[in-house]
Amino acid sequence: MSVSLTKALVAEAVGALALIFLGAGATIADQLSDGKVGIVGIALAHGLAIATMVAAAGHISGGHFNPAVTLAFLVTGRLSASRSIWYVLAQLGGAVFAAWLLSVSFPAGAREATGLGTPVLADGLRATVGVLVEAVLTFFLVFVIFGVAVDARGQRATAGLAIGLVIAMDILAGGVLTGGAMNPARAFGPALVAGRWANHLVWWIGPALGAVAAAWTYQWLLHPEPGR
Fold this sequence. Notes:
The chain is an all-alpha fold. The protein has one domain (3-222): Glycerol uptake facilitator protein. It is 75% helix and 0% strand.
């Protein structure tokens, strides 16, 4: 494994760790504080975690921290299949470690009530609708990533802020429906450590579909042609 790939994998793992520890941690903290954190606090925790990690490590790995984002780069030819697999493994590893840290940091009652922050579907929401919601939310996320971080015409200096903001706004809108994960690693880490697997595929299928749709939309309809 090359030195550059090793550094990228460390960056991806740390970014995923930050997202899950702070994002899922805010969900547990909301339970522990009897709702004082609130949906706004949870949204900000996720958004700020990603904004700061993209600013800190985006120049090392691209700042994916999300298997769905890595898939978007794969299907548009911006990342090789082998590198994509390594990225996803690093992201999942960081997510699991973060969930373990949460399991030893928070009181048992709050941990069990939230499943370590594992995303869940709202009461009565069908899994197919959950897939749709996660796909739409992830579409916006990946669309923004391509606009500010991939397209050379974008505002790369503020890419982290824009990406963090779209995550926050997605959670404000969809958090009560699906948890607003937009990220298989965000669901996988807490689910594995807490043993909560209900409707788990929603948080793989939805983000994957949304990421691919956004990547292809930007790649084929909005990205400048070579030489322009």
